[in-house]
Design goal:
It is built from ten helices and 15 strands. It is an alpha/beta fold and 351 residues long. Helix 1 packs antiparallel against helix 2, helix 2 runs parallel beside helix 4 and helix 2 packs antiparallel against helix 5.
Amino acid sequence: MRRADEGMGFLLRYENVAWYEDGMVRILDRRIYPVKIEYVICRTHGEVAQAIADMVTQSGGPYTAAAMGMALAAYEAGDMAGDQLISYMENAAYTLSHARPTTVTKMVQIVNRALELVREQAGLGKCARELVEPLQNYAFQYINNNYLKYEKIGSYLADRIPQGGTILTQCFAETIIGTLIRECHKRNNDIKMICAETRPYFQGARLTASVACDMGVDVAVITDNMPGFIMKEKRVDVFTSAADVITMDGYVVNKVGTFQIALAAAYHNIPYFVTGTPNPAHQTIDSVKIEYRDPKLVMESMGTKVTMDGVNAYYPAFDITPPKLCNGVVTDFGVFSPYCLGEYLKAPKGI
């Protein structure tokens, strides 16, 4: 089988996202990359869940980590079989899928597919250790198929970028960044990228910009308060981001800061295209819970405190961009209006 990470930057190679092997899950620590290249080693599925909660991996990484965590849970379960095994794996699935509140719905889908395999094999009398390899294979198939899906999305997004165009990004759209760049290379489109830094974890500066640089793109980083000015000054052609949730009524829930960039893009008549899949579990924006994280992270920069004692902070991890600021939702089935996302669910395969 062709590995869909072929030609991707270091950060997007499967073994550098999350990887189960020999009774452990190894996760590249994206909190410190590229300043340091270190891996967090998880020896229990609980440690995988904690790594997800602690932002060791971000963007699409937590989903792969959860899938790999199910293989680790089976390794932990050892000789368990039957109902005992199923109960243990159900608890592991819950722990992994609920590591971060905003992404629970999609996480549940991923671990539930692993649970289907567990129930099937347990019904055939298999014990836990016999399920480790099939679950690791499932996790591999998950990430590989996800990359193949994003190859289509990358192609559709590339259609929206003029020759020699400049793209402004927010946070780290992970696979879409790699597939978009790879597709532009195929088309001999010498794009440029500008990455908003994305505090407090600096995903744009450390992750998006690193992948772009790895893959030979002319890339520059700006601070989070520069997009409105830079859009006009550097003649940005397209603003794009991924999304943690795209609701069926067209709202985009993504890394905090996306909304204000979308506002500036609309002012400058620059199109904003979000990449991802509309989620039927979220029919309206009212069903989304915005996660607040440790406010101390806002009062420091890469571990260095920058505020006086007694100063407080807020840290909403995400914000909400309304459909009127989004020019299109780029999916594996094509580009859809944020006002017509029901059409995505009706789209035939291969549209």
